[in-house]
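Q: How would the structure tokens look for this protein?
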Amino acid sequence: MRTPPARRTCAALAAVTCLALAATACGGTTKEDVRNENRSATTGGKADPDAELRKGLTVAFLPKQVNNPYFTVAGKGGEKALGELGSRYKETGPSSATDTSGQVSYVNTLTQQQVDAMAVSAQDPGALCTALKQAMRNGIEVVTYDSDTRPECRNAFVSQASAEDLGRTQVRLLAEQIGHKGEIAILSAAQTATNQNTWIGYMKDELRKPAYRDMRLVEIAYGNDDAQQSFQQTQGLLQEHPDLKGIISPTTVGIKAAAQYLSGSRHKGKVKLTGLGTPNDLRRYVKDGTVEAFELWDPAKLGELAARTAVALASGQITGKEGETFRAGALGEYTIGEDGVIVLGKPAVFDAGNIDDYDF
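A: Here is the predicted structure in token form.
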């Protein structure tokens, strides 16, 4: 019997577009179907913290920028965790921290490649949403880490620390260093960076308290997580505001570039610098007096938690709903908070007294 034309067309389409991104028009089994079958078989479609962790998964990390030292350390943490869990790590992403359209194309490519999960540090809170929703519709677990997108566009967000803690403590660190008095500036990354803007919002709120009545935020500059741009922005801030007493840079690239500029200028030791940096990047600047104290979390642990969250999602131990719990190896047990947020822990402060205790 001759196959009707419509059926031949559908069969041909299915053969050519068997990738998860397109396997919807003609029915058949998609990756989402397989995932749901796996979950139904072991958890009844609900989170089961005792479900066995799946092995042989492919988890892709998509940072804001590849070859960025911070994201390299985070990626190594994720890779190590996935190796212990019997799954595969891969990394891909743009070379520029402002290439939002590039991030979208990488999400689409990973969806086409049918990875099991992806861990994404979003450059923009909304730009990735359509692509990430498509990935989830095709059975891919989506975890954001370091920088979030909108809650409906991912399964869970692994936060470095409480956004409020990070924003307020950076102001407190700088205030202590300048005696709660004087003009200050912020050197951020990209204007659209979700995490940066959230932290800055809490910084502004902290500065409204009576304790900071003699401090004034005069400018927010953007170095786009580029070393040269951040160096130049630091120079510009000091030229524009000759009475500047301190700079907060909540970005590892920015604070290192600012420290580099200050260390070779007449402002060294006079203009205080704090923010978020890695001990290895800032050790020399702490020891030469350019930087007094700064803070961060362990990016390797952030990457590890993102990887373990992705595997827990793919295994049905969690679905991303508030109140669900899971164990993340040696990191301990975590409970998912409001809007699917998982907090790594409290930020750590680094200074001359403890910086040699850390190597990352």
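The chain has eleven helices and 14 strands.

The longest strand covers residues 215-222.

Upvote if useful.
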